[in-house]
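Please decode residue identities from the backbone states below.
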């Protein structure tokens, strides 16, 4: 049995695949259902309305949004901004055009590397890994 500290309350608990202890996990699920239900009835609600009506913290609703579990339908809500261009987005981390671009750029960087490795296997594995990690980091910054 593996013991972990709950990501929410810090209490030690037996790890079963979730970062939250059973108590926090349950309330998380409850809150999620409340938010989801409210958004179902009020598709144009803002995050503040949702928070006020459901009693769920805005911070938590934001987390649901980032985890792509819910979507705020309101246009230009400015709740979430694309991490690349700053445009308002409804869920996730990037707007659709940026997500597509990033994926393309990532492929362009990773594919030649992979091909190079096929031709001439790099002996020093560690430095190669660091190289890829560095590229990932830089991509995140764009
Ligand atoms: Zn907890
Ligand atoms: Zn963008």
């Amino acid at each position: 049995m593996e013991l972990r500290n709950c990501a929410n309350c810090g209490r030690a608990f037996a790890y079963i695949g979730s970062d939250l202890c059973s108590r926090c996990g349950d309330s998380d699920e409850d809150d999620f259902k409340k938010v989801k239900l409210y958004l179902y009835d009020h598709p144009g609600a803002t995050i503040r309305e949702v928070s006020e009506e459901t009693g769920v913290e805005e911070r938590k609703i934001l987390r649901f949004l980032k985890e792509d579990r819910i979507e705020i339908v309101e246009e230009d809500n400015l709740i979430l901004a694309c991490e690349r261009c700053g445009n308002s987005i409804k869920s996730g981390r990037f707007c659709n055009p940026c997500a597509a671009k990033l994926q393309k750029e990532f492929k362009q960087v990773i594919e030649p590397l992979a091909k190079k490795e096929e031709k001439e296997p790099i002996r020093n594995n560690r430095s190669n890994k660091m190289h890829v990690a560095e590229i990932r980091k830089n991509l995140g910054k764009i």
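Observation: Residues 82, 84-85, 87, 94-95, 98 surround zinc ion (ligand 2) (CB under 6 Å).
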